[in-house]
Amino acid sequence: MNIILNIGIIGYGYWGPNLARNFSNHPRVCLKRIVELKQDRRMVAALAHPQTELSSSVQDVTRSPDIDVVVIATPVSTHYELAFDALNHDKHVWIEKPMTATSLEGEMIIELALKKNKIVMVDHTFLFTGAVQTIKQLIDEKRLGEMYYYDSVRVNLGLFQQDVNVIWDLAPHDLSIMDYILGSKPQAISAVGKSHYATGLEDIAYLTVYYENNMIAHIHVNWLSPVKIRQTLIGGSHSMIVWNDLLSDESLKIYNRGVDMIQSVESKYHYLASYRMGEMHAPVVHKKEALLQEIDYLVECIENNRQPMNDASSGTRIVRMLEASDASLKQSGAPIQL
Amino acid sequence: MNIILNIGIIGYGYWGPNLARNFSNHPRVCLKRIVELKQDRRMVAALAHPQTELSSSVQDVTRSPDIDVVVIATPVSTHYELAFDALNHDKHVWIEKPMTATSLEGEMIIELALKKNKIVMVDHTFLFTGAVQTIKQLIDEKRLGEMYYYDSVRVNLGLFQQDVNVIWDLAPHDLSIMDYILGSKPQAISAVGKSHYATGLEDIAYLTVYYENNMIAHIHVNWLSPVKIRQTLIGGSHSMIVWNDLLSDESLKIYNRGVDMIQSVESKYHYLASYRMGEMHAPVVHKKEALLQEIDYLVECIENNRQPMNDASSGTRIVRMLEASDASLKQSGAPIQL
Amino acid sequence: MNIILNIGIIGYGYWGPNLARNFSNHPRVCLKRIVELKQDRRMVAALAHPQTELSSSVQDVTRSPDIDVVVIATPVSTHYELAFDALNHDKHVWIEKPMTATSLEGEMIIELALKKNKIVMVDHTFLFTGAVQTIKQLIDEKRLGEMYYYDSVRVNLGLFQQDVNVIWDLAPHDLSIMDYILGSKPQAISAVGKSHYATGLEDIAYLTVYYENNMIAHIHVNWLSPVKIRQTLIGGSHSMIVWNDLLSDESLKIYNRGVDMIQSVESKYHYLASYRMGEMHAPVVHKKEALLQEIDYLVECIENNRQPMNDASSGTRIVRMLEASDASLKQSGAPIQL
Amino acid sequence: MNIILNIGIIGYGYWGPNLARNFSNHPRVCLKRIVELKQDRRMVAALAHPQTELSSSVQDVTRSPDIDVVVIATPVSTHYELAFDALNHDKHVWIEKPMTATSLEGEMIIELALKKNKIVMVDHTFLFTGAVQTIKQLIDEKRLGEMYYYDSVRVNLGLFQQDVNVIWDLAPHDLSIMDYILGSKPQAISAVGKSHYATGLEDIAYLTVYYENNMIAHIHVNWLSPVKIRQTLIGGSHSMIVWNDLLSDESLKIYNRGVDMIQSVESKYHYLASYRMGEMHAPVVHKKEALLQEIDYLVECIENNRQPMNDASSGTRIVRMLEASDASLKQSGAPIQL
To answer: GFO/IDH/MocA-like oxidoreductase domain: which residues (chains A, B, C, D) (predicted)?
Structure first.
């Protein structure tokens, strides 16, 4: 016999409608209640979800006995307090990214979730896309060989955020993907960037993340690009991946290419590069909606009392990297140890 | 009555054949002599240029009375000595990029050229392409508005160099373009990168160059990319450019796009972004061979005793930035003042 | 004071949900009732549109006094009968494409609509896209010069239809666009194609449509292409358009290119071609949902008792071309006069 | 001991320089003599090939005892006479495409070549590209399954020919590729097209070629397209190919995709389509210069007295299809039996 989880969403702003639509379409959950402070947004929610209760009090969700999972889709500064209240009232928690405004808040949530034995899942939606699932599998099967680099360009025109810079806005996508697929602990992070408007928030920035064994990751985030680019190169000693997230077909291409460096017979300081230029293939990548997959996973983790990969610890690791990027930005790109 | 300049090329390796072909096709110069130390390469040169003299002694070019312009296409470590000898014997000099191994060498060449009143031109071929010429014109006409950023990705698989890292190999292209089009003095540079092979030379690297007024430039150079990318974004307050150098048509696209930040009536700390999403156009870009255009310019500068834009000072500025990138690499990306 | 039109939809299959969603989102109409024969599809409709009545009897829509507009989204073989019944009961009618199974049926609908003074609109949705609107405007402003050709490729893998061949499935899009933008009466049509499966229905086909003044149109439709292509070239004496409908940005490119043929001085039979290779530009194309625009237009036509451009006459012209393509297919591509 | 073949080229116009460059670079042949009637073109040839004799008399090549192979790169109307003279004087012959102006001329060359036991090779260069070689191999290995269709788009702006229409100019490429890879005899051909300039020669045209077993080929050739497209779709029951000849990398993509039609249990007239959407891969395609490969093949055929695949019979089959396309054009696309 399957349980049905009762869901309460807090926040019906930019991302809330997507959450509400997917939670209401999933057979194993029931979208019981939506809390939204603004009346006009409550009206929009009411029209789209006539069978869901609307409320303007967060406690109708965080403390209500008929709610199993609290979904927090509010500005990041409020995440901690809401999650803390929900956990305290024995709810499971789903939090939008970034998980919290500080890593300290993140650690307190980790601790409380552990004490309460509740699931905390951070909504890093990208992890549940077909592309990232396939990349993860390729890396786990050692198909790329030794990992060399991860390079992501995530740029387009707008939307400027009011409260966070472009790193906090866009980089969590890549940071969570890296956390998931690279299976390696970052050692240091450096960030450079510039603001061109009176808000003072960086609108273009570059992050570098250092790993052991000379692996390096780099992320270009930009609100000022005339064109939208979502392209990631992942290089290994054996194969290399190009992931173009804007393509609906063939978004993932795997190149059987590499370089071997051979010591020259003439001199031990002289190397000859031998290039392997093999074929490319584009695997079939599932196109199921990522949020629906993530809800599947939520249900599965709760049913089996299993810790999700995108748990509070993972979310806090991402926040710690964002904090380090802020520190590095203030020091003109000096690397910050993690 | 037009003069015909007698040309002597030193070095017939990777780039030498291109130089020889273009110098021999240009009506205002005569390719008199090629010096090449390796016998097999001299044979190749002889076959391609039966009317040109071959020699294995550099002084047949640097010191010969029948040579007007010495073209130096040898490894960078030899540039200084050859250029110095040529200038000393009252030759004009054309040097491949990067101009010298150190900025000190560069300064000594600047001084000697001045004293001898001879032209030194550094072969930054890209400056003579239709794309860069058009970009330069757009910027000079203030069509982009205030300059915000220059972002270049210059990656492909190989060719690994033996003596220099990927920055010294590929970044001079962008550094010379930036020197030419931005019209602004760089203030600091930082570089990060990693080597994945026994040579110890970085095969992937990221450069950031800081300018006044929050303008920022960033260059991704990489010998380990599975695909070739040559894409540059240039953002200004009014228009933005995407330059894809791999396209034979429509390589340059100009977007009439921008953002205006308006202070909110509610709060002076609150801004509303207003986006302008205008049309894109791809201007007609000339497709004349860049090297031929550059030889035109060489002849013109010598005839009119005019300082070229890509003179020894410009070449030395590029070398200084490369030196700074080395220093920054050693300090994990700490910015180096210029 | 604005009227609100009451809408009744018949058919909730492949396209019905899109219609229902857009009619229910439009402020000037009310989605009163949906008729669907299959119970499981009625269930789906009920979930998505809880405030709309469901019925299994078409007469609840075609004959109900509280319905103003009957929307017919059923298989093409039923269009005529339903439209006829609706018009007879003084409803306005919206019919999915192709309008009817035969041009004779089409003519009878034209006649009845005239007699009843009711609007009949055929849902050629493409006409309301930003791309087609922009192309129409360019042609009307004579920006292309004299029209030379229209060439469309509309191919992808699947979906095989059960009752019609690939021409009846995909070509109505282009035929309706041509009818709208070319402003010229087709003179003849020829069609070739092949079937590769036991259904005997052509799965790949090529249509040629002849116009006066040597203008020619050609359409490649194909259910067997490994990749999806939606590309149209429109050539005129002055400018040329490339429309790639799969791009969300820059889907429309206008090339200031052309050829002038100059009689040679040597011989009156000898011509010299002079090529104009001007710039390309991509205009801003509106991205409003086409169906919503079309509903706007429906309301406007009904309010002002104005004949829509996509009326029954236009729909019947398309059906006549489809009939001619069938006749030509049977004669191995012999041209059929229209 | 290897023989060296002495080559004489007639015609140094558009394609002649490519031929001369490749013949002069090939180790197994010697470019002995070039015949060109126009003095200015002879000058250009002399500069590029100082070691080759120049002449203005075709008999210096067709009848000279020191020539082994006559290369005919003149206007098509002269091909027959030159080839006939060369064969009569016991030369092997290389003819540019199309081989002759009429199929009757082609048959007389076939006959004479047989009688004289000499090689006649028609320069269908595309057959020697890596892409076509790979496609041929895939088809021979039955990797595509049963062949369904060949669809080619070969369009760009210009160059208008003076003496032939766009079909004679561009279609021979595809016709020769089809002749080579499809391994099936065409049954009929139909062609439609239009001329928009005073020359009266078609500048846009569409060819359809019918084969047995419902295989169909279609070629769009166009001198009036604003953009250059060189794309071919090749569909089989098992796999499908997309060949984009403008890409230097990944020009060939093979899709493991297909459709199976299953008879419905409900009705024998009702079929269910089952789609196989497997992965795509891009094989490594050799990038050797096609003309050099073709010269290799010429030498090999002469040495071994082996009939080339692109012999006079193949060339005549292409000419016969071009003649049929002319006949069909005059009959508005009526199919012409072959």
So the answer is: 132-238
